[in-house]
Amino acid sequence: MKMFARSMLNIISLRATKRAVYVALIWTTLMMFCQFVSLLPDFAFPLSVIQLLKILGLVLVCVFVLDAIWLIWAVFAIKDISISRALDKNLPVHEHSQVTLRIFHDHLPVICQRLQISLMDYYPIQTQTHDLPLSFFAQDFINNSHETTNVVVLTYSLYAKERGRGSFGGVDWLFSTPLGLFCKFYHTPKNQVQDVQEVRILANFKDVLQGHLVTMSKHSASGGFVKRRRKGQGQDFHQIRSYVEGDSIRQIDWKATARYQRLMTKEYQDEADQEILFLLDCGQHMRHLRFVDEVAVNHVMSAEEDEHISHLDMALNAMLLLAKVANEQSDSVGFISFAGEKDKTVPPKKGANIISYLLNQSFDLTASIKAPDYMAVAREALVLQKRRSLIIIITNIRSANTDEIFAALQLLTQKHRVILVNLYEKDLQAYLKTLPDTLDEALTYHSVQSYLDEQKQLNARLGKESGALVIGATPDELPIKLLDGYWWAKRWGVA
After folding, report:
1. Residue 217 has pLDDT above 70, yes or no
2. pLDDT tens digit string along 385-395?
3. Using one digit for the tens of pLDDT, what is the confidence trace for 28-49?
4. Are residues 248 and 335 in the same domain?
5. Of 12, 151, 153, 244, which residue is least crowded by CB atoms under 10 Å?
6. What's phi and psi for 118, nearest 5 deg?
7. What is the DSSP code string of 286-346?
8. 400 lies in a domain?
């Protein structure tokens, strides 16, 4: 009984619109003005005007009451409306996706056909849209171009600004009369919205791949990269063939030479079935948001949109690109994330589904405000990788404290080939493109130049003392330089 009473009270509770308030204020103002003027001495004000305003007020009251009753009746008749939401459950980040709302009603009374309806869909916090609220008339349930009657189909564009798991909420409805004097709010809970309620926002590998096709073709073996014959250690034997000028003397097979009575040499090919493990820093220095990957993103984004492309996003994009190239070389790729909100250990794998595998494992990685623990992740990598592998660390090092990263590099290089990518902010380069005109600009220019010089010196020192390949790069330079580092490791052998 209480639930029924509450439901009925909810149906009859209305709100006056601005139009109704303005109409009431105008009538009240005119009435008060006429009453005031009629009280002035020596001023003959026609009482018929006041009587006319009273009649007008009575008419307005009747119109208001009838409009309110009509809205209550219409909302009660249409309250069984249902809605379903359709879209892909896997959305690419930094791209627009279409959401389709299908609104059903079994029987629409004639009285409801002029009802104006607006709705607001509660979309995930990782997304944004400028298309809501959506509006339509109740008569659209009948006057639609779809095969099924009593259905209204609405769409809006949803832009995914961050990776992660997103949840839709319920739907808010706003019913209003043709006169627009009253409106009625109604809420459909989340559990009553059919079909899609949760989505996963993944790295946009399609756009990243298209944006870097030229880069990949120029830096891959199939694009003309010259594979050099290496010095034997860690190489896979391919065949014995006739010696040609330029072959290393160390690779001459003297037994085969004696057998065939001509110089024969051993030919090696790049090692296959190598394992590549990324150590992805998800700490405080990977939260930087102010630059845009102009190559990978294929549409013009607003300032709101481009703010959400972080260093971590670009590191993931570079990892996916390298995974595609490495998979073509029969190499496995995995990663360990550290210093993030939720750390993950993903063992290296290969195969046709490697990109899907990495996308599904990395979509919910987010940068935190934690400081990275390089020694802890180095020990975890040693436990995971029993065989000699290529370890790629992507981080953003501040030169103030490098003892821990140096110790971690020394620990890893004892068993593995290591590449350290030290990211720095692209914004810093903008300060050096123009000469300073004021003292403040000169101080900023000098500080930025000093910082970048310190980073170069740090990279050189870490590489020299640890034996790792240390690469300094901005996030948009990362894919090219990372591919170069990968081919460097393939050329000289990981194992």
Report:
1. no
2. 999 999 999 99
3. 998 888 888 777 776 666 778 8
4. no
5. 244
6. -125, 145
7. G-------TTT--S---HHHHTT--HHHHHHHHHHHHHHHHHHTT-EEEEEEESSSS--EE
8. yes
